[in-house]
């Protein structure tokens, strides 16, 4: 369908074939296994912070896709403020990954970042073809979001060091499943050259001379 407005009335960031999603990283972790999850979430957050820095340097938009935790009257700023309060289990995580002024955010009511949220609309206007998924937890909200992204024909990158569960074996099983079933590239974040990757993606979608195959193919481990 032809869009009436090409840029969400000037509100959408520049177009990009790649977007970085941070899933449920603004999280108070105030639940039974929250302390156990924090043990794995903190190393994950440090990797995400560096990946986010590199993504922004390469012009890749960053989207926080965050649960509303059943607080239908809340907004993202209120969630962040709550998670930064003294004594909140998830405070170290929120401090590491506080959003910046030019980041986008989407609040979700359920596990998937797509159900039912504005994420589809945002990614459509950005003209995104590949999603880099990071965050919590690998076997639930990351997995559900990845499933829905795969059904929408997005290419998937899910860096193994940028997702976590409260048990290491659960993270490994979830990553193996997403690599096998959803064709996700699960290479570590340090191996992703974002600037080169976006150039290769653009080249892949440009018309190819007859008989010449695209040069880029995601790696699945």
Name the features.
221 residues, alpha/beta, Rossmann fold, six-stranded parallel beta sheet, 7 helices, 6 strands, 38% helix, 13% strand, globular
Question: How is this structure best described in words?
Answer:
It is a single chain. With 221 residues, this protein is α/β, with parallel strands linked by helices. The chain has one domain (11-196): 3-Layer(aba) Sandwich (Rossmann fold), CATH 3.40.50. Helix content is 38%, strand content 13%. The chain has helices spanning 34-57, 76-83, 91-96, 119-126, 141-151, 168-181, 194-205, and strands at residues 18-23, 62-67, 104-108, 130-136, 155-157, 163-164. Strands 1, 2, 3, 4, 5 and 6 form a six-stranded parallel beta sheet that branches. Strand 1, helix 1 and strand 2 (62-67) form a beta-alpha-beta unit. The longest helix has 24 residues, at 34-57. The N and C termini lie far apart (36 Å). The model is unreliable at 214-221 (pLDDT under 50).
Overall mean pLDDT: 88
The CATH topology: Rossmann fold
**Major β-sheet profile:** 6 strands, parallel
Number of domains: 1
**Through-space gap between termini:** 36 Å
Give the topology string: H per helix, E per strand.
EHEHHEHEHEEHH
Strand and helix layout:
Blueprint: E1 18-23, H1 34-57, E2 62-67, H2 76-83, H3 91-96, E3 104-108, H4 119-126, E4 130-136, H5 141-151, E5 155-157, E6 163-164, H6 168-181, H7 194-205
Parallel strand pairs: 1-2, 1-4, 2-3, 4-5, 4-6
